[in-house]
Amino acid sequence: MFGNEPTLFVFRGIFGIRVEVRQSLVLLALLYVVLSVGSMQGLIDALITVGLIVLSIYLHELGHAWGCRVQGVPVERIVIFGGGGFCEHRRSSARQDELIVAMGPIVNLILWAISSIWVNSVVGGLTSLRDLTPVMAELLYWANLVALINIALFFFNMVPVQPLDGGKLFYLGLLRVMPAGRALRLAGTVGVVFCVLWWPGLFALYWLTGWLLLFAPSFRQHLAMMRGQIGG
């Protein structure tokens, strides 16, 4: 879902890697603005939130890129769109893929930990919340949001469906303990279950948190995997 639409703009990011930003990212931003705005402050907050989400996704993809670089796998590009992002690289082995795939969620965990530790250290050093200056209170709010965004991205990415990292890691893990054909069918079966649960889960996530991400896994792909017809 999304990711193949026209490119909005291109730039060279960290490590000199080409970064393509797709048009559906604008749709994601507009959805947040429409659903959040009630005042000028609401508009500003919505735009900052989208910016933090995009930055977190970019750093997540840089984690994948780093996993490629340390193993000598050339990186082609990073693409960011309304449903998340992906790091495109040259062919790699299953063993190389384990580090490449794992580094994205690890980056999100690191960002969550850094933000959470800073927030807790500041709050823990106060005798009263009334000691907070308005500027520090604002910084704490956004730092806490960074922590929430990244822990949410971590759990989102660990759902065992393709092409999310959780689905890839699940399949790679199965390859270590069983033949490829059996691993493919089992990964596909689990993926089919989560595809069925996806839309109720996405609705529940928005209802409880107000968070949106324009992505849905392919039921057809996982059904084909379950039948052993395509690769993971």
From TrEMBL:
<feature type="transmembrane region" description="Helical">
    <location>
        <begin position="29"/>
        <end position="59"/>
    </location>
</feature>
<feature type="domain" description="Peptidase M50">
    <location>
        <begin position="52"/>
        <end position="119"/>
    </location>
</feature>
<keyword id="KW-0479">Metal-binding</keyword>
<keyword id="KW-1133">Transmembrane helix</keyword>
<comment type="similarity">
    <text>Belongs to the peptidase M50B family.</text>
</comment>
<keyword id="KW-0482">Metalloprotease</keyword>
<dbReference type="Pfam" id="PF02163">
    <property type="entry name" value="Peptidase_M50"/>
</dbReference>
<dbReference type="GO" id="GO:0006508">
    <property type="term" value="P:proteolysis"/>
</dbReference>
<keyword id="KW-0378">Hydrolase</keyword>
<dbReference type="GO" id="GO:0046872">
    <property type="term" value="F:metal ion binding"/>
</dbReference>
<keyword id="KW-0472">Membrane</keyword>
<feature type="transmembrane region" description="Helical">
    <location>
        <begin position="99"/>
        <end position="119"/>
    </location>
</feature>
<feature type="transmembrane region" description="Helical">
    <location>
        <begin position="180"/>
        <end position="199"/>
    </location>
</feature>
<dbReference type="GO" id="GO:0008237">
    <property type="term" value="F:metallopeptidase activity"/>
</dbReference>
<protein>
    <recommendedName>
        <fullName>Peptidase M50 domain-containing protein</fullName>
    </recommendedName>
</protein>
<dbReference type="GO" id="GO:0016020">
    <property type="term" value="C:membrane"/>
</dbReference>
<feature type="domain" description="Peptidase M50">
    <location>
        <begin position="137"/>
        <end position="197"/>
    </location>
</feature>
<keyword id="KW-0862">Zinc</keyword>
<keyword id="KW-0645">Protease</keyword>
<feature type="transmembrane region" description="Helical">
    <location>
        <begin position="139"/>
        <end position="159"/>
    </location>
</feature>
<dbReference type="InterPro" id="IPR008915">
    <property type="entry name" value="Peptidase_M50"/>
</dbReference>
<keyword id="KW-0812">Transmembrane</keyword>
